[in-house]
Structure formats: structure tokens, C-alpha cells
């Protein structure tokens, strides 16, 4: 098909559908985010009970050299805690993709079903996140190249979860689906990135004077919820691209 007549993604429509789906299923996203946040917070409490504080995980300006009584184990605990939070964020992403796809297609779905699918596909999801994260992070200093890769692989997680593809296959699938309409996909990326920044800024501003007992659980919950929003945007973009370029995919097999 000549480029001049190639159909493009309607970014405004996709953004509107994503917000509608997110707010329409807010209880589901809160449940998925909350379940994972509870596990992460519980692990943090175990760290605290073991005498390994994790409060440094929330302090972006934390300087161990400026803390005369600082225990190096606190830095280790905070690093491990952050890694666990990132790992569970991938579980939220996978579960949110499965739930959003079902909701978009009008299929009843439970939080347990969605988390079950994410758990079954957890290691490929994590591998995909690590591989794309490394490439994007390495090329981000070139700015435009990093943004290009991020946009090109924006629907890789939905492809992995819904089509049962491998890590590299999912990256290739995303590249094919976004080809010819990446400026429109990039607009979706920018909008939801800015929404995430605003939400994060507001929450951190409200929690700046809160004790770690309140700040840590709330920060984790909001981070997971923001991750759900990003996943909803990704899955809606994926489904719109599949509908645009191919026949709509039947996702029922994912829940078998």
C-alpha cells in the first residue's frame, strides 16, 4: 500500500478510549495495583523488622556520605526494595494488559484471572522489560534514538501477553504494528508520560512531610496505579493498531 494512502492511528481517539477504559474499570486497576503494592510493602516491613531500613528508597537526594551514622545495609536494603518494586510493576503491567484487553472486547474478567495470566507470562514480561529497558536506557543519551525505540516497542508487552510470543518476537511484532504511524503512537506516549509525571509530582508533594509509614505504601500504590494506566494506554494502542491493520484478534484463548 503506498505510504500516501496508508491509514494512520488516530491518536486522539486512542487516548480518549484509554482514559475511558481506565476510569471505567478503575476498581480493577486499583485491585491489581493494590494487591502488588501490599506484597511490596509487606516485604519492606520485613526488611524494617530485620533491622534493614528502606526509607532511603524514597529519598532521591539521599547521600550516604552525608549521614555520619549511616549503615551501608540501608543502601543495600533500599536497592533491593526498589528492584522488587520494579519487578512487581511488571506483574501489574501484564495483569493490566490482560484485563484491559478483555474489557475492551466486552469479555467479563476477574482480577484473579488477569493476575494469573501475568504470573504465567511473568518471566517473558520481565525479560522483555529488561531487554527493552537496556536498549532504550543505553540509547537515551542520544535522546531521539531512545525515544524512537520506546515508540517502536510501545505495544510489545500486549503482543507478548495476548499473542503468547517470545521476547524478541514481541519486539518485532510491535515494530511491525507501529510502522507507518509512529508519530501518532509517540503522541500517545507523550500524553500518558506527562499524566504520570503530574500524578507523581502531586503525590510526592503531598507526601513530602509524611512519615515513612505513610509515604512508602502510598508511593508504591500510586506507582503501581500509574503503571496500570500506562498499560491500559499500551493495550488500547495495540488493539487499535491491530484493528487498523488486520482483523480484530480474538483474545479468548489467552484466558483458557
Could you explain the architecture of this structure?
- This protein is 73% helix and 0% strand.
- The protein has helices at 11-24, 26-49, 72-104, 111-120, 122-139, 144-152, 156-163, 167-178, 182-207, 212-245.
β-strand number: 0
| Rounded mean pLDDT score | 81
Structural shape = globular
Rg result: 19 Å
Number of helices: 10
Major β-sheet profile: none
- β-strand percent reads under 5%
* Parts with pLDDT < 50 across at least 5 consecutive residues: 1-5, 57-64
The SSE order reads: HHHHHHHHHH
Spatial separation of the terminal alpha carbons: 36 Å
Approximate helicity band = over 70%
Judged by helices, strands and strand pairing, the structural class is mainly alpha
Amino acid at each position: 500500500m503506498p505510504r500516501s494512502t496508508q491509514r494512520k492511528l488516530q491518536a486522539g481517539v486512542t487516548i480518549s478510549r484509554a482514559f475511558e477504559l481506565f476510569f471505567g474499570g478503575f476498581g480493577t486497576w486499583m485491585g491489581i495495583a493494590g494487591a502488588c503494592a501490599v506484597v511490596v510493602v509487606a516485604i519492606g516491613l520485613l526488611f524494617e523488622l530485620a533491622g534493614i531500613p528502606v526509607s532511603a528508597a524514597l529519598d532521591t537526594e539521599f547521600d550516604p556520605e552525608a549521614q555520619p551514622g549511616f549503615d551501608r545495609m540501608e543502601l543495600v536494603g533500599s536497592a533491593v526494595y526498589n528492584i522488587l518494586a520494579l519487578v512487581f510493576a511488571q506483574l501489574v503491567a501484564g495483569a493490566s494488559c490482560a484485563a484491559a484487553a478483555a474489557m475492551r472486547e466486552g469479555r467479563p474478567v476477574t482480577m484473579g484471572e488477569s493476575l494469573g495470566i501475568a504470573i504465567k507470562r511473568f518471566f517473558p514480561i520481565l525479560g522483555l522489560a529488561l531487554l527493552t529497558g537496556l536498549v532504550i536506557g543505553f540509547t537515551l543519551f542520544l535522546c531521539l534514538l531512545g525515544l524512537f525505540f520506546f515508540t517502536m516497542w510501545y505495544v510489545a508487552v500486549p503482543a507478548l501477553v495476548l499473542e503468547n510470543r517470545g521476547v524478541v518476537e514481541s519486539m518485532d511484532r510491535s515494530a511491525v504494528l507501529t510502522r507507518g504511524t509512529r508519530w501518532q503512537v509517540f503522541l500517545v506516549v507523550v500524553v500518558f508520560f506527562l499524566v504520570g509525571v503530574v500524578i507523581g509530582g502531586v503525590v510526592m508533594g503531598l507526601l513530602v512531610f509524611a512519615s515513612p509509614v505513610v509515604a512508602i505504601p502510598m508511593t508504591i500504590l500510586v506507582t503501581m496505579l500509574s503503571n496500570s494506566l500506562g498499560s491500559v494506554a499500551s493495550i488500547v494502542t495495540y488493539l487499535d493498531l491491530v484493528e487498523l491493520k488486520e482483523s480484530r484478534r480474538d483474545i479468548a484463548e489467552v484466558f483458557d
